[in-house]
Design a protein that fits this description.
With 218 residues, the chain is of the alpha+beta class. The longest helix is centred in the N-terminal third of the chain and has 49 residues, at 2-50. It has 2 helices and 5 strands. A 5-stranded antiparallel β-sheet has the order 1-2-3-4-5. It is a single-pass membrane protein. GO terms for molecular function: electron transfer activity; FMN binding. Belongs to the RnfG family. Part of a membrane-bound complex that couples electron transfer with translocation of ions across the membrane.
Length: 218
């Protein structure tokens, strides 16, 4: 009797495990596409805050390139650079950048740069800065990052790419200097990266598009 009871319980547990696994797998498969679409939508929304649809006619998510760690961008892992185009001509790029010298750690951001080398916009994507102080780099808290728009390596000298406390031209926050100092330096380095790699980025994109078109034709 005891053996039969254990056997039945084992079978029931096995069936329960199979049923549970099936439900979980079915739920995952049915929602995987929606989750992927939601992530893509969130990414696109962030990009469009910097380069609005009125300026380009391509999908920046599709016209992107992998970019590895760079001393200028401070990346800790491979990310992507997005390229905005209008009538098949590049008009701007959006570079990933990490300021590793934030007050409480890394400050991850994306930086839009126009073809002429001027800043199109900046958005901080992730940070752990102090609420009420350093967190003003977050666009939801303040529009401080808009102060970079229009500045370039040509219009703003290296000495000026600092916060005012360091004799530069960019504002810092009341009671907080480290975070805006780190972000300002990161934006400057991103402009330097773009200046040094501009032609290579556009050439690489054109090559990948050509290869993709050839694969599609086949």
């Amino acid at each position: 009797m005891l053996g039969e009871s254990i056997g039945k319980n084992g079978i029931l547990l096995g069936l329960f495990a199979v049923l549970t696994t099936g439900i979980i797998s079915g739920t995952y498969l049915s929602t995987r596409g929606k989750i992927s679409d939601n992530i893509r939508h969130a990414e696109e929304k962030a990009l469009l805050e910097i380069i609005p649809r009125s300026r380009h006619d391509n999908s920046m998510l599709d016209d992107s390139l992998p970019i590895s760690d760079s001393s200028l961008l401070g990346l800790r892992e491979e990310k992507r650079v997005y390229i905005a185009m209008n009538k098949s001509q590049p008009i701007a790029v959006i570079l990933p950048s990490t300021a590793r010298d934030g007050y409480t750690g890394d400050v991850d951001m994306i930086i839009g740069i126009n073809l002429d080398g001027s800043v199109a916009g900046v958005r901080v994507l992730n940070h752990r800065e102090t609420p009420g102080l350093g967190d003003q780099v977050d666009y939801k808290k303040s529009h401080w990052v808009d102060g970079f728009i229009g500045h370039s390596l040509e219009s703003t000298s290296t000495a000026q790419w600092k916060v005012k406390k360091d004799k530069g031209i960019f504002d810092q926050f009341t009671g907080a200097t480290i975070t805006p100092r780190a972000v300002t330096a990161a934006v400057h380095r991103a402009l330097q990266y773009f200046d040094a790699n501009r032609d290579q980025l556009f050439t690489q994109l054109a090559l990948e598009q050509k290869q993709s078109a050839g694969e599609t034709a086949q």
